[in-house]
Amino acid sequence: MNIHEQFEKYDTNKDGFIQPEELKKGLGLEEDEVTKIFEEFDKNKDGKLDFYEFKYMMLKREFDLFDSNNNNKLELNEIMEGYSLDEEAAKKVIAKYDENKDGSLQFHEFKHWKHDVFLQNEFNHYDTNNDGFLQPDELKTGYKLEEDAVTKIFKEFDSNSDGKLDFNEFYKWKITEDFRKLDKNNDGKLDLEEIKTGFRCDEECAKKFIAKHDKNNDNSIDLNEWYGVWKI
Question: Are 8 and 26 in contact (CB under 8 A)?
Answer without folding.
Answer: no
